[in-house]
Every structure is written in C-alpha cells, then in structure tokens.
Amino acid sequence: MTTSKPGGAPLDLRERVPEATALLTVVSLALVFAAALGVFPSGLLPRAPEAVLDAIPPVNAVVSLVAIGTIVAGWRAIRRGNVRRHARLMTTSFGLFALFLVLYLYRVALLGPTPFPGPAAVERFVYLPVLGIHVLLAIVCVPLLYYVLLVAATRPTADIYGSLHPRVGRAAASLWLVSFSLGVVVYALLYVVY
Question: Whole-structure pTM over 0.90, yes or no?
Fold first, then answer.
C-alpha cells in the first residue's frame, strides 16, 4: 500500500507499520476510554429502543463465543500451513472484535457501565478481578492485533514468515482467547448467575 509524501515521493506503509500501529492504537483506545469513562457526549449518538440496548449483552456473548471459535480455527489453519484460511479466519476474528467493541461502547456510552448485581464478596474477589484481567488483556491486544494485521496486509506471504508476525501473532491470539473467554465469564456473572 503506497501513498505520496508532500514532495511527491511515495510513502510505503510497509516501512511504517510500527508508526501506523501506534497511531491506530492511540485513536482506538482514546475512543474506548472516552466512551467507557463517559467523556464521549452520548447526546451525539442516536438512541436505540430499550429492546435493542437490552439485546447487546447476549449478542456480544455470542459474538465472543464465535470469535473464540474463529481464533482457534485460524490458529489451527496456520499450523497446518493453510495461509489463506488462516488469513480469512483471523480477519473475521478482528471483525468480530470490532463488532463487539462497537456494540459494547455504544451501550456503555448511553447507559454507563452495568453495576454488578451479586453479593459484594463475589464482586470484590471474583467479578472485579475477572473483569480487570479481561479489560487489561483486551487493551494489550489492540496494538498487537493492529501490528499483525498491518504486517499481513503490506507484505507478500513469503515475507511474513521472516517478520515478527508469527511471534506477535501467537502472543496476540493467546491473549485474545483469554480475553474473549473472560468476557463470556463476565457476561455470565452479570446476566446469568446473578
């Protein structure tokens, strides 16, 4: 992918993957924190009916379960040497991650965070630690995911093997799986168990 510098010389995104990763990460996390901390003006968002807002948590739980499946399948595909299938599955996983995040942040921007309805001891010793690890891993995954996607998008397949993509991708996929799994646990604690 090539664009032009102001002087007319080409700017190759391939040579700017770390910078593009940093920029996308900062913008994405700024939007996430703005919505989660109530800084984003919710009046700018169209308000969906209550039934739609109520449907977001179970929809996101299903999205998370499907993403767990696509990440595992993508991991298996690359271990078997099926690069094309791996690329499709991991791109799908990223799309599911983005869908989850858009739905979650939309709901949080309008309604605020969902309070834990269970006992205080469970909240303190189970729910909050699980939620904290889930959120921390999701944040850590953002730059890793952008990096591996940008490397994959800007290089021929043969060049990817010589890059950091395989090593960073393994770390990203592992953390992503744990984060999605803990997200399902958070959903269960909020909406099923209590």
Answer: no
